[in-house]
Amino acid sequence: MTRTLSICADDYALSEAISWGILELAQQKRISAISCMTDSRFWPEHAHALDFAGTDVSVGLHFNLTEGLSAEDMPLGRCIALSVTGKLDKEMVRRRLNTQLD
What we know:
Blueprint: E1 8-12, H1 16-27, E2 33-36, H2 43-49, E3 58-61, H3 76-84, H4 90-101
Parallel strand pairs: 1-2, 2-3
C-alpha cells in the first residue's frame, strides 16, 4: 500500500510575511497545499500572488470564525463552547462560510 503525506501551509493572507513565506515554500515544492484566509484585508492582493505558487499545490479555504478579521469573529474558547452546547448561530456560520467561499 502506498501512502501519501500532504503538508498544508495554513493562514495564507493573514499577514504579508505569512503569505510570502508560504509562496516561497510552494515554489520550493516543500508544501503540497495552502489554506487561505479570504476574510483578511490582505486577501484581495495576495489572491493574485497564488499564481506563483505552482500547479502542484492545492489551494483551499481556511474557514475562519475566530481570528478577529470580521466584526462577527469571537474568541476561540467562546466559539468552541457555543458549538459544543449547540448554541452557535447556524445562520451566522452559513453566512460566514458563503462569504469566505465567495
